[in-house]
Amino acid sequence: MHDRPTEETERRRQAAAGTARRVPLPSSSRMFASYLCDTERLLDVQRRDTALRDALDLPRIAVALADPQLRCTGEQAKKWCQEWIRPPGAEREAQGLDCERLSSIISERVAQLAASESVPMRALRRLQLRRHARTSPRGFAARTAEGLPAREVETAGMSTALLTAARRWYARSACHDPTVQANLARLAVLR
Predict the structure, then answer these.
(1) Residue 15 carries which DSSP code?
(2) pLDDT tens for residues 12-70?
(3) What are 92's strand-pairing partners?
(4) Strand partners, 98
(5) What is the C-alpha separation between 34 and 42, in angstroms, rounded?
(6) CA-to-CA separations, 134 to 21, 126, 180, in angstroms, rounded
(7) 80 near 63, Cβ under 8 Å?
(8) What is the per-residue burial (b if ≥16 Cβ within 10 Å, else e) of 148-174?
(9) Mean pLDDT highest for which of 47-61, 120-134, 136-150?
């Protein structure tokens, strides 16, 4: 009679341990973090067009990483932009940029890029090349966009908005998503 509570207790403990193992632990990707830091550095050294190109790839990379076949459609990329570029309740960013207008411009450009290919191979390859990058030094501070022409301010603003959205996406969603983590691991070992 005394054995029954012990067996029941053991079953509960094993069941609890089994459910604890199913919850994915947060993960960080040096490859993804390096991609973001490299794009910020491009902004800092005033290579804004190259930074914007890399930043515009972020929604397609995010959508592809969340798909088991690494596919991305224009509509999915547009939806990602609408969900992640503008945080809920924010009408303006700290820099005074109109997030809604910026989000719609970015969404359209990303959708056009995504319509050209179902698997964003160039974007994923640029991400993959970051897999052996060294860890970025701490304390990196980007320069401000004061005194720049309007076109360059908009380019820097779009890049910054995409970088912020990608960080938010990774921290809140991707680091817990087994598909994203499996795809990042797959990219890290592919040559």
Answers:
(1) H
(2) 666 555 544 454 445 678 888 888 998 999 888 888 889 999 998 999 999 999 999 99
(3) 98
(4) 92
(5) 12
(6) 31, 15, 22
(7) yes
(8) eeeeebbbbbbbbbbbbbbeebbeeeb
(9) 47-61
Tokens of 161: 């908005």
CA dist 82 and 76 (Å) reads 10
* 76, two tokens: 């999915």
Through-space distance between the first and last CA atoms of the chain, rounded to whole angstroms? 61
Residue 112 has which token pair? 């056009």
Tens-digit pLDDT profile for residues 149-164? 777 888 888 899 999 9
Cβ atoms of 56 and 128 within 8 Å: the answer is: no
pTM: 0.72
Q: How many CB atoms lie within 10 A of CB 6?
A: 9
Q: Give the DSSP letter string of 33-80.
A: HHHHHHHHHHHHTT-HHHHHHHHHHHHHHHHHHTSTT----HHHHHHH
List the chain domain ranges.
Answer: 28-133+141-189
Tokens 């973001």 sit on residue:
36
Please name the amino acid found at residue 159. Answer: S
